[in-house]
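Trying the structure run again after the queue cleared.
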Amino acid sequence: MKTMKYNRLNAVRYAEKWAMKRNPAYYDFDGIGGDCTNFASQCLFAGGNVMNYTKDIGWYYISANDRAAAWSAAQYFYNFMTTNHGVGPAAVAEEISRLEAGDFIQLHNGTEFYHTLLVTGFENGEPLIAAHTRDAYSMPLSLYTSARPFGLHITGINIW
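Done. Tokens:
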């Protein structure tokens, strides 16, 4: 197994294009739990272009009815990214201050992760984020006040 570099710029460019609208190639989950992690996964895929098609525990999207839970559910996204030793993206938990554009912030409610945000840049040291559900692009993280943020730093894309 080899690890290729994650293209952070492509992930951020994808977010810039699609943060305030929906890519018709993907189902919009807004009415059934939220579209945030689906959008985050789309951004991540734009920066890495490799999915993990392992049933039940992978990270992939074929259609609304054929996708991994990690593609569209925040807690499963975290679980996959931080434990993936197979094909596809991999991440480590990281302090918010050490994140880079193209990394992710997840919000935690004391029980589980429930919202996933893409870091698009920084302003005066504060992360700017892109998200769906509450659509945003380059919005300051400080506008999310009701949850504890956790950082996910993408370390690379595993390939064979």
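The helical segments are 8-18, 36-48, 69-72, 74-83. Worth checking whether this holds up in the mutant runs.
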